[in-house]
Fold this sequence. Notes:
With 186 residues, the protein is mainly alpha-helical. It has helices at residues 36-92, 112-162, 178-185, and strands at 5-9, 15-19. It has one domain: Helix Hairpins, CATH 1.10.287. A two-stranded antiparallel ribbon has the order 1-2. Helix 2 (112-162) crosses helix 3 (178-185).
Amino acid sequence: MTHTASVTDHAENHTYHQPTDQTPTSLQEPPMFDDPISSNELLEAAREYARAVALAKDTAAAAREADIRLTEADIAAVIAINNEWEANLNNEQGPPRREMGFVAAVNTPRDPDDLAAVARVAEFAKLNYQQLRAVAMSADLAATSASQAAEAAERHLLDIARTPATGLVDQPAEAPTATDQIEATV
């Protein structure tokens, strides 16, 4: 539809352009927002989308925190493993080392109890790393699931917003909730 205008000359010699019709039909909002059922459905979809986005944001933050803790544990494990490695190398060395010009031996753990303690610290560091790795993997999975749920809720919201109130032929499937998405992946 085209937009036409009429021109009217007034006594004061001012020219006014008055539209002869309203906004073109193709740009008008669908009448669905006058329908209380459609409005409620749209509001509920918007609320579900907001909940899904909030959950996705929270789980992404938790995943980032878990990744930070995992990196810290990884550093601690590497340090403990290096200490164990160094203690074992020093133990295999033979008689105590003496630095040039000094009579005293270099202080390295040579006692089997000391080596066992260093090895135990390294094993606990490895265990802690693996435990935090499992937590980080779980947090990443939850964040991915929450993001997918937010995307599904967004698609559902947009489908509802695009669907006219009358003459529904293919109604969009109900979007899974954020909780459903997370439960499905866990």
